[in-house]
Design goal:
The chain is an alpha+beta fold and 200 residues long. The protein has one domain: Pnp Oxidase, Chain A (Roll). It contains eight helices and seven strands, in the order αααββββαββαααβα. The chain has a seven-stranded antiparallel beta sheet with strand order 2-1-5-6-7-4-3, with helices on both faces. The longest helix is centred in the C-terminal third of the chain and has 22 residues. The N and C termini lie far apart (71 Å).
């Protein structure tokens, strides 16, 4: 697989580490618990790539917007994320949205018109929130009027859905038993406490 030439600009968001890094990976555990559909309600998907050095499957939750057979992701940290650098080495990946897994091919977004359309797709749900976030990722304040002039500054990846099996094994829902087990344990605990109170 030939290397994809991605283009990115400077960004102002600090790369997440420590507790913040762990928190951003929390959706992975929620997916494993069987809450993939819930994650999709919040425009979150699981992106599976191949480690550029190890070749092993690597998974990361990312915010996305889908338009037909195209899925768009904006990198908040330019070229720093491992998933981004993995896609540079191998553009084939797996996108898990809800309960479905897709074979996708990553393409760098260089067309300003398409980039502007994608950014507006993201900010449409909460303009004030996304304007503040996008401003940290660019060199200028962001609003509906300024966005066309700075849309080229953002690192956007288009994931084209292709026919065929996902190239990276989908992240399994191997902890799906845990949630009902905890619910059962909680219910039994409440029942035991109720019985003890009745006897006292």
């Amino acid at each position: 697989m030939s290397k994809v030439d991605f283009v990115s600009e400077k960004h102002g968001l600090p790369y997440p580490t420590g507790i913040l890094g762990w928190a951003l990976r929390l959706p992975l555990h929620l997916h494993r618990l069987g809450f993939g559909l819930v994650l999709s309600w919040f425009n979150l998907m699981i992106l599976g790539t191949r480690g550029r050095s190890s070749g092993q499957a690597r998974y990361v939750p990312v915010e996305c917007r889908r338009h037909g057979s195209k899925i768009y992701v904006v990198s908040g940290w330019g070229e720093q994320p491992h998933w981004y650098r993995n896609l540079q080495a191998d553009a084939l990946a797996t996108a898990q949205i809800g309960g479905r897994a897709y074979r996708v091919r990553a393409v760098p977004l260089t067309d300003r018109t398409e980039a502007l359309r994608v950014l507006n797709m993201f900010r449409r749900t909460a303009p004030l929130v996304y304007d503040a976030v996008l401003a940290r990722m660019s060199s200028s304040p962001v609003d509906a009027r300024s966005l066309p002039d700075i849309s080229h500054q953002f690192t956007i990846v288009r994931l084209n859905i292709e026919p065929g099996a996902p190239p990276v094994p989908p992240l399994p829902r191997d902890l799906g038993w845990l949630a009902p087990a905890l619910a059962l344990l909680f219910g039994l605990t409440l029942l035991a406490l109720r019985v003890l109170r009745q006897r006292s």
